[in-house]
């Protein structure tokens, strides 16, 4: 993602900008991230200017859809910034098996997710669109233009009202789409940095900002509650978020690990888990038994038990560490995950 670098710490810049260059390499520490991200951000800006208008209108006849004859129900989808194919994996995958089929296209996917119909949605940084794919490597359905052409960072759904919520990198807020059509944006004075995380928990919408802010929009409505100024502690660089069946909010903090907060979320975390790698997006499965996190530090998808948060195994087959494994989402068929790399 291309965002104001001065608004970020080095750790945040790693995740948000490293994928903006096909030559970006994940460093082993945060000591040199500033220079790496500055270079990556410039390259991303240059590459985007060359994307032809109407690119996403192309279909399989133009060689942009990939549908495998061995598609299977459910699984993991992994994508890379420098490629157009999205890999599909079965879960569980303790033996680190290869992808079962491919789908596409994608260009710099960020915090991907699925809807209630198991369609995969890619907030696509390269094309400034939110791309919908059919389940099971079924190919692209459509693409939705990002509000004002800005880069989408993350996506979440409230099926009960038919809304899709998209974190907007350039606008400090959440863009709301109803049945695929943009309707409004949720903003808040506390979101004075770029938004790159969004979650829906019990019909409430949560937005995370690069300025260490988390805003809760009760019922998906403004003005929103600033949870940090209301008493939430423990965060430093909040990224992706997800919720469990008890309405707990789980925050992926780039500096402090996985943080779980109980309602009303205005206190210290009830659980802190150190990740085995470096993560920015993660999700629970449908039954709340497993927690899946993209690991850009190790080029992997890390699998944890829940609620214990004990590390089980990682998937690396078909994923490239230098291309930054980032997004992760859950396919509702048999509770596997979908992972994105860029």
Please describe what this structure looks like:
The chain has 342 residues and is mainly beta. It has a single domain, classed as Methylamine Dehydrogenase, Chain H. It is built from two helices and 25 strands. It has helices at residues 10-17, 33-49; strands at 76-79, 86-89, 101-103, 113-114, 120-124, 129-133, 140-145, 152-158, 163-168, 173-178, 181-187, 195-201, 204-209, 213-217, 225-226, 238-243, 249-253, 257-261, 271-273, 282-284, 290-295, 300-305, 311-315, 325-330, 337-341. Mean pLDDT is 77; it is low at 1-72.
Topology summary:
Elements (H helix, E strand, L loop, with lengths): L9 H8 L15 H17 L26 E4 L6 E4 L11 E3 L9 E2 L5 E5 L4 E5 L6 E6 L6 E7 L4 E6 L4 E6 L2 E7 L7 E7 L2 E6 L3 E5 L7 E2 L11 E6 L5 E5 L3 E5 L9 E3 L8 E3 L5 E6 L4 E6 L5 E5 L9 E6 L6 E5 L1
Antiparallel strand pairs: 1-2, 2-3, 4-5, 5-6, 6-7, 8-9, 9-10, 10-11, 12-13, 13-14, 14-15, 16-17, 17-18, 18-19, 20-21, 21-22, 22-23, 24-25
CATH class term:
Mainly Beta
- β-sheet strand percentage: 35-45%
Terminal CA distance: 10 Å
Largest β-sheet summary: 4 strands, antiparallel
Secondary-structure-derived class: mainly beta
Strands, total number: 25
Radius of gyration: 18 Å
